């Protein structure tokens, strides 16, 4: 089918002419890593008038266009919906004026519209994440991390103003991701007298030797009388009342710029497919829809319902119904707000409940970015719930050696943005130390365990629960939160650290591709980590626009390698200068990275030359991405709340006794929800030899990568989103645990 670009948005549709251009395969090559929009975008006054829309309809009919995919914010999508509703009327009018004939009116009687939400504010109801939000968070967090280092040296207070005229999402999530002291958002204005409580909190933090205060203000922040709270006002307040050296930083358009993050590239690619499928299935009877993501599940929602809901939020805020505004924003927003409130303010000791329970937290496996955010959340939620929190140093090995100490609220301050594992982590499994670990559990009177780690953490919990028959000490609630760059833990779609690693791979691939610009044609063979799990290779390939990704889960032979080389050679004979091939480290013991490199070098002689790169341990390092900070914080807080619930349930005659399967769980993200699953039940889903789950959701995205690399293949549509209604979520649903 013919694909056309409309340049300059609705303006281009109204102006017509050379704004409407047919697109070829090559014309969109290598735009994946470019920020902004290559086809331009413009606010268009004339499209807001009927005359403008009439002209646009004429231009579309002239080119025979009856399917539109609109990528934009709520304004653009509202306009698209109106355009569709008026379509038949506009054609009638054009026919009356004699600009088109009756034949055309019949032939082009229906206009199908599918929307994708591209907006950094994430202000569109019905979607968990809009395209561009994650990249904007990357920009904000980069700035905050940089400011943190300057403020550590000078005792300073920083007031950061972020975008969001009507929506506080960016402010809220960046406050969560950097552990800000205070945040101002339009949906949740501070209570009367906030000036006093904020100043008290800031001075308390100073007294605790915290050298840095960060306050985040959304540009649309208001107080409970709907009066604006500006960053200047906040600064003046801090200076007048506390005399702190205070600086304001307004981030402005930095947030719209830069190269898209890995999450945004994958989200946008998945949504693009969904949009095309929705257009192909559209009939005159189906409403115009928006494709979006709910958790990790693609969904379709009626465009008008989303627009109405988005307008409802604004109305609720204007009328001072703030609790309702937060609810209308959706469960993901509400969860962010509740988690932030839970973690940012320590209640005075006198107000905390006393449970007399001791809970230990440990990291197991290889380091993963975001582990520290998870530890921080666990410790702070645990303290809020009234428990004594203990940190175990160096995993199960450290546990056996008695490296365990109580950890306080202040000890974990500033941990969110730190990479690696501050507690220290080891791959050692507990089986050979059972006696010693049981001793330590008894000595320190540990009533529950929270393990943050990868596949070893999962194996470790299986071993501990098997040892319950012999040791009563292990008859306590235990929970695991998945954290590994490989994303190979059964029972969860995502694990903490995988997003950061993907961004590293994507950035590196972008640079590597750029290194060859201007030279002769070149193909790069890049080896990624992941053990036997192909997640990083496959998703990295999708995000970097690679030509092939070799993974263990999809066996390949010499014929396939040959077909790939020939395919790439053909492509390189066109205007395309660079090729990219990713290979998972364990995808095949004989077809090594060197073998593939030599094969491509030989077969590509005269057309392209080859280079190889092994990415190695840089994939485990670095500061955690906004996604990993946020995911780590929220999933860990939820795991801690589960521990509290289980402690209450299993407390009998003055002690804890838990020996059922459902008291050893893994908390994972499954499609749309966070689910607690007994580790015993996950055994059947696990391939223990290769340390991967037997079924993995992302394998369904394999054909998408191949299609984007110009292979003829079929895409499995069974998983595509079905049309649903936008739900005002009930309180019960909030408990099922959306992220």
UniProtKB/TrEMBL annotation:
Q: Indicate whether Phosphoprotein appears among the record's keywords.
A: yes
Q: Which GO terms describe its cellular component?
A: 6-phosphofructokinase complex; membrane
Query: Under which pathway is this protein filed?
Result: Carbohydrate degradation; glycolysis; D-glyceraldehyde 3-phosphate and glycerone phosphate from D-glucose: step 3/4
Q: Which cofactor does it need?
A: Mg(2+)
Q: Mind telling me which residue stretches traverse the membrane in this protein?
A: none
Q: Which UniProt keywords apply?
A: Acetylation, Allosteric enzyme, ATP-binding, Cytoplasm, Glycolysis, Glycoprotein, Kinase, Magnesium, Metal-binding, Nucleotide-binding, Phosphoprotein, Transferase
Query: Which positions fall inside the Phosphofructokinase domain?
Result: 2-278, 358-643
Biological-process GO terms, alphabetical: canonical glycolysis; fructose 1,6-bisphosphate metabolic process; fructose 6-phosphate metabolic process
| PROSITE patterns (alphabetical) | PHOSPHOFRUCTOKINASE (PS00433)
Q: Which InterPro entries match?
A: 6-Pfructokinase_euk, ATP_PFK, PFK_vert-type, Phosphofructokinase_CS, Phosphofructokinase_dom, PKF_sf
Q: What is a single molecular function from GO for this protein?
A: fructose-6-phosphate binding
Among Pfam families, the record links this protein to:
PFK
Catalysed conversion reaction = beta-D-fructose 6-phosphate + ATP = beta-D-fructose 1,6-bisphosphate + ADP + H(+)
The record, for PANTHER family, names: ATP-DEPENDENT 6-PHOSPHOFRUCTOKINASE, PLATELET TYPE, PHOSPHOFRUCTOKINASE
UniProt-listed NCBIfam families: 6PF1K_euk
Protein name per its UniProtKB record? 6-phosphofructokinase type C
